[in-house]
Specification:
The complex is a heterodimer of chains A (404) and B (117). With 404 residues, chain A is an all-alpha fold. Chain A contains 19 helices and two strands. In chain B, the strands form two sheets. A four-stranded antiparallel sheet of chain B has the order 2-5-1-6, with helices on one face. In chain B, strands 3-4 form a two-stranded antiparallel sheet. The chains are: A mainly alpha (404), B alpha+beta (117).
Chain lengths: 404, 117
């Protein structure tokens, strides 16, 4: 990684948050910082990396923004401003007047702004990737499988929806609610990467990786002792455990299911990190993230698929279903119960269940096949294949059906 | 009549970046006063842009197509820097000169008619 890429990864969100605090406009801050990085690409290659890259970028971005402001005054644009405390604006203005001073971390405000309730979750997710993590618009478009101009327009609308909002850290219940939204946004992005509903890829590890980075950023900027932190630890553990399997999930572009995965190819350092995050949470109040993480951890610690402790997993699924009432959880629970108690027990849990998408008929087909009912299995596979939008998964389902 | 108003100031970009917020607001206010004054006189701002700093300039030298030298930086390295320009359409030179009075105080303003105004 070059110094510039390093700076992009490490400093983008921090610097952007600072510029937003100072200039009170998302568009200006973003354009100015983008320009600063573009200039840096040239200058740093020619003159070498400056001693304090963050200070260099901040100074360059401010200069670009001042130029834009003057240009807007001449061209007579007047745009609404975010509400920012005067003291914060003043503080942001003077930060790093001298090189070497540490950058004040305003990313929490930025993360929380992106999780504003006026934004639809998928818009919030796109805006968060752009503003907090600095992912380019073209890359976000690719990650969410939409054309770049569509994503650019979506981001513009999202920015506009926020123009009059407060750039501030709310307190108490509102802070907790916002953090919950950020977590949902991160998990939405993660899921879009881990199990894309459509398109040619089986999964997109880069999007899942960015979502993990977002949760790490969120954890690092929340106040110490924040009530929602344990649940974020659980979420991070859950993501790490699932993401750790990425190299084993596909073979030659074909989907490899959990029992067939080569466990040596799992990222065991990431699994260790997740288990460490979970250790203090065992016995904590159950939450959906925690229960899902515990289930994922159970898979992660089994040396072989046959060694999986399905009894414990079914217990957690039962608790999770009680907590969420989610039909998706019921489906997953049925699959686990089939492992613990046989396919008929699993099938009984699927009775009367309704879910859009291909996962329910696919699971039913699999259990019917195992229960020795190939005729019914074939019918269920047919439904699953018709409903499946992901090309790799569809190929996998056809193969299973043909093997009956 | 159309006039081009060119706003220049010694070391403009450096000074602009170092201004306090209050001073910068005063500059914005002057631009707004200028706009209002042009309209009051029945004139029109045809166009106007603020320029990015000279460090972003490139100069394409004289020559035939393809044989021109392209260098980084402005044509003339001078202390005077152009911050921006306006094209205004006003009744006469006197109006243009009076209007130029309204622009931010740090700038010298070159007022020049366009040939085919």
């Amino acid at each position: 990684m070059t110094d510039l890429e390093d700076a992009w990864r490490e400093e983008w969100g921090r610097l952007l948050a600072l510029l937003v605090a100072q200039f009170r406009r998302l568009d200006l801050a973003e354009d100015g910082l983008g320009d600063a990085f573009a200039t840096a690409a040239d200058r740093w290659r020619r003159d070498g990396t400056p001693d304090n890259p963050a200070a260099w970028l901040l100074t360059a971005a401010r200069r670009r923004i001042y130029d834009r402001l003057r240009s807007e005054a001449i061209a007579r644009h007047k745009l609404p401003l975010l509400q920012v405390d005067t003291a914060l604006t003043e503080e942001a203005r003077t930060v790093m007047a001298d090189a070497g001073e540490a950058v004040v971390d305003e990313r929490l405000r930025l993360v929380l702004l992106c999780a504003h309730p006026s934004l639809a979750p998928e818009h919030a997710a796109a805006l968060t990737l752009r503003l907090v993590l600095g992912v380019s618009t073209a890359d976000i478009a690719r990650l969410f499988l939409v054309p770049a101009p569509t994503m650019a327009a979506r981001l513009t609308r999202a920015r506009k929806a926020l123009v009059d909002e407060r750039f501030a850290v709310p307190s108490g219940a509102e802070l907790e609610a916002r953090v919950v939204t950020v977590a949902e946004v991160a998990y939405l992005a993660f899921t879009a990467g881990y199990a894309p509903g459509s398109g040619p890829d089986l999964f997109r590890a880069d999007l899942a990786g960015e979502a993990i980075r977002l949760v790490r950023v969120l954890r690092s900027v929340l106040p110490a002792g924040f009530a929602g932190t344990p649940d974020l630890d659980a979420l991070l553990a859950l993501m790490l455990l699932q993401h750790a399997r990425r190299d084993a999930r596909a073979d030659d572009g074909r989907l490899v299911l959990l029992p067939d995965q080569d466990r040596a190819r799992w990222r065991h350092d990431e699994i260790s990190e997740a288990l460490e995050l979970l250790a203090p949470l065992v016995g904590a109040r159950s939450t959906p993230y925690l229960l899902q993480a515990l289930i994922a951890a159970e898979h992660a610690i089994a040396a072989t698929a046959a060694a999986t402790d399905w009894i414990r997993i079914t217990g957690w699924y039962a608790e999770l279903e009680q907590l969420t009432g989610s039909p998706v959880v019921r489906l997953n629970r049925a699959v686990a119960v089939a492992e613990a108690d046989g396919p008929d027990a699993g099938l009984r849990l699927l009775d009367g269940l309704e879910l859009p998408g291909h996962r329910l008929p696919a699971a039913r087909a699999e259990l019917l096949a195992r229960a020795g009912r190939p005729q019914e299995a074939r019918t269920a596979y047919k439904v699953a294949i018709e409903r499946c939008g992901n090309e790799v998964e569809r190929a996998h389902l056809s193969e299973r059906r043909d093997r009956l | 009549m159309k006039y081009v108003l060119t706003l220049t100031e010694p070391r403009h970009y450096e000074r602009w970046a170092a201004l306090s917020d209050a001073d910068r607001q005063a500059v914005f206010a002057a631009f707004e006063r200028f706009d209002a004054a042009v309209a009051e006189r029945g004139g029109k701002v045809v166009g106007g842009e603020g320029l990015a700093g000279p460090e972003l300039a490139h100069t394409v030298g004289p020559g035939t197509p393809g044989a021109r030298a392209v260098t980084e930086g402005p044509f003339a390295e001078s202390a005077e820097q152009i911050g921006g320009f306006y094209v205004i359409d006003v009744p006469d030179l006197d109006s243009a000169l009076e209007l130029a009075q309204q622009l931010p105080e740090a700038f010298s303003i070159e007022v020049r008619p366009v040939v085919d105004g």
